[in-house]
């Protein structure tokens, strides 16, 4: 697979891990917390290494699945083993190469907002590992909910995880200290570094459950929360009713 000259720290870290460097890690930069290490091994988790919310999401998949932001393909491979037809997409060329080498049958280098192939529809759009963050911002969430109608089959569903990160803005008394005139507190700016390579800054959305419910219902989806963990992360199902499609 030809390599792009654009920075791809995530992809190169995943390739290094696949080649046997078990200590491979990314350095994660954000505008709200100190730099943190992210072990490449996290992207290669087996089913029983996944959080319960992710295992629940896999259990709730149906039909043809689009695995968005698929990384090293751990969810796609698990679904393939269960007999699902899965298309895995990631914006990282290196991640797509890793998925192909690991046996993901249909892996493509796309971002979330690329137009679908003619006639291509999915019964489930899967967005795990805080995957709703792929939309970037609240404006991106609104845009994605419209775009998803071009991707979903009649009666299709979105299964996504996200987190409420308001706890990052609590003072010592537990009160929220947020600039109500600023951006939504869950809109975070990130960049990734692997070795000497730093990728471009990108937006990532952590949306509290009430925000997701409001935006999804306004866009004509039915909303069902399927679980929450003790890290303020939750799993939501957004269902597009057949009556909503022409």
Automatic annotation (TrEMBL):
Residues 65-156 form the Methyltransferase domain. Pfam families: Methyltransf_25 (PF13649). GO terms for molecular function: methyltransferase activity. InterPro entries: Methyltransf_25 (IPR041698), SAM-dependent_MTases_sf (IPR029063). This is Class I SAM-dependent methyltransferase. Keywords: Methyltransferase, S-adenosyl-L-methionine, Transferase. It comes from Hymenobacter fastidiosus. GO terms for biological process: methylation.
């Amino acid at each position: 697979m030809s390599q792009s000259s654009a920075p791809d720290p995530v992809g190169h870290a995943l390739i290094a891990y696949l080649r046997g460097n078990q200590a491979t890690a990314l350095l994660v930069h954000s505008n709200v917390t100190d730099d943190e290490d992210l072990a490449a091994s996290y992207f290669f988790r087996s089913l029983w290494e996944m959080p319960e919310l992710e295992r629940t999401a896999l259990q709730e998949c149906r039909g043809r699945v689009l695995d968005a932001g698929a990384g090293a393909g751990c969810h796609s491979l698990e679904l393939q083993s269960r007999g699902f037809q899965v298309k895995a997409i990631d914006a990282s060329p290196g991640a797509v190469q890793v998925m192909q080498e690991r046996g993901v049958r249909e892996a493509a280098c796309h971002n979330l907002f690329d137009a679908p192939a003619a006639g291509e529809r999915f019964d489930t759009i899967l967005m795990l590992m805080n995957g709703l963050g792929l939309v970037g911002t609240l404006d991106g969430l609104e845009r994605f909910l419209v775009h998803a109608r071009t991707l979903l089959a009649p009666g299709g569903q979105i299964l996504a995880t996200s987190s409420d990160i308001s706890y990052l803005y609590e003072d010592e008394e537990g009160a929220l200290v947020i600039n109500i005139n600023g951006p939504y507190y869950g809109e975070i700016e990130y960049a990734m570094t692997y070795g000497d390579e730093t990728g471009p800054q990108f937006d990532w959305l952590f949306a509290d459950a009430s925000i997701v419910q409001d935006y999804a219902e306004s866009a004509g989806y039915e909303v069902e929360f399927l679980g929450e963990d003790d890290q303020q992360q939750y799993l939501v199902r957004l269902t597009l009713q057949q009556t909503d499609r022409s």
